[in-house]
Amino acid sequence: MDSFWSALLEALHLVITLDSDLLEIIGLSMQVTITAVSIACLIGLPIGAAVAAFRFPGRTFLAVLLNAMMGLPPVVVGLLVYLTLSASGPLGPLGLLYTPTAMIIAQTVLVTPIVAALTRQVIEDLNTEYAEQFASMGVRAADRLAALLWDGRYALMTVALAGFGRAIAEVGAVIIVGGNINHVTRVMTTTIALETSKGNLQLALALGFILLVIAFAVNAAVMALRASAVRTAYA
């Protein structure tokens, strides 16, 4: 029990004093995650909105595929990205394996289906609500899609935050393609796993505390956005 409280106090000391190693790990984690989620949104938002708003052959299959891919096993994604970026893989000459770029690619692959599937649900509901109005006004397809995305902006922000929460907590895929190299590819989740196995609970607890704070902040932001959307709808 004494060792637990000692480790906890040392962890709090690392956080309060803004330990340089701690800040480096947090900074890389945020850089990788924000970049991956931004790319995932650029890809997933248009795909999800198009599947929701338009009718085309294979639409139902694509919708089912997006929902199924929300549950992609991280270690499988990590393995596939590893094989793609390895020396014998198609992108091996680029030398991306065991770099932050490889970790961004893995997180993007994981988050994009989540963003696309959740976007489809949001936009499909709005499209059903406004379908008759769009038809009576003769709104073009591109303008209709833009209007739906704008009207659903608050809900779509929560989609992006959901993707962020998924990415920041990822460990399986990023440790496979990143290698958890000190000062190069070490992020919060992989460091917690490594330091716990080494018995260095101080750093692991400090990073765990930061992850909990981030999770709380993301959920608070989601609730605030939903409340703002409700107020806007009834204004």
Automatic annotation (TrEMBL):
The ABC transmembrane type-1 domain covers which part of the protein? Answer: 26-222
Question: What subcellular compartments does it reside in?
Answer: Cell membrane
Which Gene3D superfamilies is this protein grouped with? MetI-like
Q: Which UniProt keywords apply?
A: Membrane, Transmembrane, Transmembrane helix
- Per UniProt, what is the membrane topology? Multi-pass membrane protein
What domain of life does the UniProt record list for this protein's source? Bacteria
Name this protein carries in UniProt: Tungstate transport system permease protein
- Species of origin reads Roseibium denhamense
